[in-house]
Design brief:
Length: 186
């Protein structure tokens, strides 16, 4: 595994490297008190990589370098972002990451080495980029439509009430309202 930032490339240098991928897909129960299995898609979150391996005591410089990479900050105080080269990251279409969670280094007495684990989270995930493009397209089409008709743009999503009718909460309440309307047959 290789991480690159600002023209500096660093091979992580872990022996017995193990990389696992986690793709959080979030759904919310929409069945209320019923036994329905309906769910609402609440989005695909950033992918995370869990890395594990060993660093021999004789290569303590590798552990020092890894700690420095994990602690690195940008000039504005945000966590440093790295370009990653790794087979698992490539397969998951992850190109940029930042350290996330704990970096753990524990001595393995019988092997004269440290067992090292840490996490990397995807920076500007594919899902995040798609959502941003979708929102930008939605907003620009609303503005273009209102500009063409000569009306003033009002509210966050270009409607007069300021209610975001594409938002999660609105859609949830709309489903609940529609369901309750089916129950009210009196």
């Amino acid at each position: 595994m290789i991480l690159e930032r600002d023209g500096t490339t660093k091979d992580i240098g872990l022996m017995d490297l193990s990389v696992s991928l986690k793709l959080p897909i979030k759904n919310q129960d929409a069945s209320g008190n019923g036994s329905n299995t309906a769910t609402l898609n609440t989005g695909t979150k950033a992918k995370t990589l869990s890395i594990a391996g060993r660093i021999p005591f004789s290569s303590a410089d590798n552990l020092t370098d890894l700690i420095k990479l994990a602690e690195a900050l940008n000039s504005d105080g945000t966590r440093a972002i790295y370009t990653i080269v790794d087979d698992t990251a490539d397969a998951a279409d992850i190109t940029t990451v930042q350290f996330n969670g704990d970096l753990d280094a524990r001595k393995i007495p019988d092997l004269q080495a440290w067992a090292v684990t840490f996490g990397l989270s995807e920076y500007l995930s594919t899902a995040e980029r798609v959502e941003a493009q979708r929102n930008a397209g939605y907003m620009s089409s609303e503005v273009a439509a209102d500009s063409a008709s000569g009306t003033e743009v009002a509210g966050a999503a270009g409607n007069e009430s300021g209610i975001d009718k594409e938002g999660f909460v609105y859609k949830l309440f709309r489903k609940v309202d529609d369901y309750l309307a089916t129950l009210d047959t009196d």
